[in-house]
Hints:
Elements: H1 3-6, E1 11-17, E2 33-35, E3 41-43, H2 44-54, E4 60-65, H3 70-80, E5 85-90, H4 95-106, E6 111-116, H5 124-137, E7 139-145, E8 151-153, E9 159-162, E10 169-178, H6 179-187, H7 196-201, E11 208-211, H8 222-233
Amino acid sequence: MTADRDRRPAVGAVIVAAGRSERMAGVEKLWAPLADPDGCVRPLLALSLAAFEAADAVGRVALVVASDAIERASALVRDEAFGKVCAVVPGGVRRQDSVLAGLEALAACEWVVVHDGARPLVTVDLIDRGSEVAQETGASCCAVPASDTVKEADQYQRVVRTLDRSRLWLAQTPQVFRRELLLEAHGRAQGDATDDAALVEALGVTVRLYAGSSRNLKVTTPDDLALAQALLRAE
């Protein structure tokens, strides 16, 4: 380990995997089998965790799963020898409740990387670049520019306006924050939020975007799962 790496602030990660796979037609997406580039068939969640296990910048990982998946997730961590996983904890009703549970399980660290466990094609490069960009303001968010025309509609699906897509980005994870900043954002949260960057934005803190990847898809439907498998085969 180099002297520069020794001086890096402690970085922890929260992998959020407490979703209920409501749009997966009965398939538990986090446990769906995927063949990695070496041909080894592993649960989807294992691929997400493997990227963090390989990321030198990350020292420890808290895995947040549904309460009825604790034993299964703990067995996965043990069988895959994911040595960085320091805790497997139950999630809450909302996504932000699950993130907070993971934050509390991480204990002391200066930076936190938050990632959706249902994004199995995350890479070490995305994790590392997020950590670097976050140094500027204390918060970073992986994202891709919107490539389709975006319409705003009312409750009756009538178009209200067409948005200028040149300024629109689609948020992904990883998202990286100073731990104390993220804890403050969760403590002051008003209502629900779909990602942690929104909670930090509400504090008036600038969140820096950095380029994500269309490959870094979130599996929410059977088609997404098939696409993830096709992308893995193409590597």
